[in-house]
Amino acid sequence: MSAVSSNLIERRIVFLLLFVAVALPLVFPIGWKTEVSSYAKQAWELIESAPDSSVVIFSFDYDPASMTELQPMAEAMIEHAFSRNHKIMAMALWPQGMQLAEQAFLKVKESYPDKKYGEDYVNMGYKVAGIVAIQSMGKNMRDVFPADQSGTKYADIPMLSKVKTLKDVAYINSLSSGTPGIKEWVMAARDVYNTPVTGGTTAVSAPGLIPYVNSQKQLHGLLGGLKAASEYEALIGRVGSATVKMDAQSIAHLLILLLILTGNIKAFRARKRSAE
Amino acid sequence: MSSFMSVFGLWMAVFFTFSIFSFLYKDNPFYKFGEQVFVGLSAAYWLVYLFYSIMLPNLFTKLFTDLKGNLILLIPATLGLMMLLRIIPKTQWLSRFPIAIMIGTSAGINMLRYTKSDMLSQISATMINPFNAATTSAMIGNILLIFGTICGVYYFYFSKKQEGISAVPSKLGIWFLMISFGASFGYTVMARVSLLIGRLEFLLKDWLHIIK
Prior knowledge:
The complex is a heterodimer of chains A (276) and B (212). Chain A is of the alpha/beta class. Chain A has 2 domains: 3-29 and 248-275, no CATH class; 38-239, Rossmann fold, CATH 3.40.50. Chain A contains 10 helices and 6 strands; from the N terminus they run ααβαβαβααβαβαβαα. In chain A, helix 2 packs across helix 9, helix 5 runs parallel beside helix 7 (182-193) and helix 9 runs antiparallel to helix 10 (241-275). Chain A is elongated, with a radius of gyration of 22 Å. Chain A starts with a helix and ends with a helix. With 212 residues, chain B is mainly alpha-helical. Chain B starts with a helix and ends in a 5-residue tail after the last helix. Classes of the chains: A alpha/beta (276), B mainly alpha (212). At the A-B interface, helix 1, helix 3, helix 5, helix 7 and helix 9 of A face helix 2, helix 4 and helix 6 of B.
């Protein structure tokens, strides 16, 4: 067998193993516990410490491609904000974010059926222009959002009666999988108007955003990927979809570690053989 | 009818999921079909979506309902049209003006924001008293943060040949960079596995109803 076809078969075996390693824990959950990181704790603390009845912004800056990682975060954070009686103004810097926001609210409302649209939460819809839109929100919110998703005028939405600019919201929570997203919120909202920003992102984007979680508090914590989503679920005492999926994630990581180890041993032996 | 459409949609999603996964075995017509349908659908979807969610509410509706009050919108509308003139060779030069405005505006906005958020605030965040920490691990973290930042930045100092003692921080900088690349790779693996989990959850939950 040639080296090329041998490599191809090995690759297929790896794919198959990974497929099984992810599928089995989904069918037969193990129930491993997740340890909460300081980044998730900081995000939780920001929401926990905001006063009762505060108006807050949840920005849904992602699309269905990132749903697996970000939707559990969105649901857990909405649930936490609802439990603290915060008034959530949902919006999106990504076009499909508003549908995902609707889905998340629908899901959380199963546990909070008494929360009313317009009084406890509102969906302002998608806003084009990213950082420019955020800058404009810092000057006049009503100009940026003349009406909500269903066409109700800004002035007629009870929970927004006292919200004129970004300075009037207690914190901003951006769930983002790219640009525009958390970085734009930090640049145009936190660093200009001093409004605290927290958020969640995909695991791929997390390393680029972690430097903003610093002594300057540019970001109040950060949820990076499915693991952080499960950490947040643990913090609010919820067994959500992220917690269930973490078993599969952990098994897959163990398998990948094993494969890296096997690959290195194989490469080492091949190098030794060729040296002889 | 809606029930039929949702079942049909589900089976379509299953078909395309397997078509794309089939590439893992080898390139095949199912994969190619799935890939091309995705590209075509995405292009059409975004065209319609952007027209209805950006052009219509922000430009056309405003101009048609209150032209006098929205005269200023004719400026971006004209600039947009000038951009489209790029497709006609004779009028191509006109598109340079809106492009110049876009580049100038973006540069202006980004210069201010990046200087504040990515430079000044990041530098300030490194100017900390490392020993002013609640726990020992936090203190070690602070020391590593300062040390790693200095060594990492020094690695990119090319004005003097790095040899002898001056090469030491540079070599340490490489180590810090390598560790950060490793962490990024770990996060990337986690993200990719999450995508697989999402697809398998769809197959096992929505399609096969094996899991709740």
